Amino acid sequence: MLVDAHLHCTGKESAADVLNALDDGDVDIGVLLAPFLSDGYSLHDGSSLARANDHLATLVRGHADRLVGLAVVNPTLPGAADEATRALSTLKLNGLKMVPSGWMPDDACAHAIYAIAADHNAPILFHSGIFIDGRSGRFCRPVEYEAVRAHPGLRVALAHLGWPWCDEANAVGLIDLINGVPVDESQFRFDISFGAPPIYREAVLRNALAVLTPGLLQFGSDRFLPCSGADIAAAVTTVNELLDLLDVDASARQRIFAGTAAVWLRLPGYAA
Predict the structure, then answer these.
(1) N- or C-end of the chain: fewer Cβ atoms within 10 A?
(2) How far is CA 101 from the centre of its chain?
(3) According to the model, what pLDDT value does residue 49 have?
(4) Sign (positive/negative) of CA torsion 131, 14, 59, 272?
């Protein structure tokens, strides 16, 4: 099985586009993020995020066997808690995507969203590390996400291994392992969609494998839909080539490409 745990919607894709790309890329399950970086959508416009979440709900409806939808919520916006509840309860989306852009993960408004996610047994994918706007990286350092530990049972994933703060991300994830928490019960997972430029990637992945183990790492292509299956497959190839260099065995690869995300998402047969 192959789970792509990080696919961006743009608002321009149809369900058929997405499913065809997954089929052509040999991806079994795609985790889709509501659009927030493309034209017509903004993290700082609540009405656009509501439209984004509506679009995502339309895409994934009727395709629960293939498509997982993560609504985008900005906790600083008026009505953010209501939108998170609507996304999870009314739209029946599977979880949330959050990007600290002008807010800190320990802010009270963020904790309100975490509580809603925990009540719905819904995972959260956080952006972590430097951000494309060139302004928000300081809000997205991995250690700041320790705030979610105030919500036991909440399952989160940090994207991009927190680059350039990858050692910090490893330290955050290591705490559960030090304390004897089984990987399937950890609050933290880390997606290996690459924030790091190519020259850094082998070292970043080597350290993450050594510290976090494959049990806390999950694949994400970070591709923007609509895209071709070949584009997604190219991301898979890039990771496999690095895993070849690091002499990672088939069992560990299966965990990275499917098992970790399956547990995080509570896919049937993978509940911790």
Answers:
(1) C
(2) 16
(3) 98
(4) negative
Residues 207 and 213: their CA atoms lie apart, in Å, by: 9
Distance CA 11, CA 22 (A): 17
| Gyration radius (Cα) of the chain, Å | 17
d(CA 6, CA 26): 15
* pLDDT tens string 11-36: 999 999 999 999 999 999 999 999 99
Domains and CATH numbers, the chain: 73-265 (3.20.20.140)
Q: By the 8 A CB rule, do 185 and 223 touch?
A: no
Query: What is the model's pTM?
Result: 0.97
Contact 160, 127 (CB under 8 A): yes
**Tens-digit pLDDT profile for residues 161-207:** 999 999 999 999 999 999 999 999 999 999 999 889 999 999 999 99
Q: Is 162 exposed, middle or buried (0-12, 13-18, 19+ CB in 10 A)?
A: buried
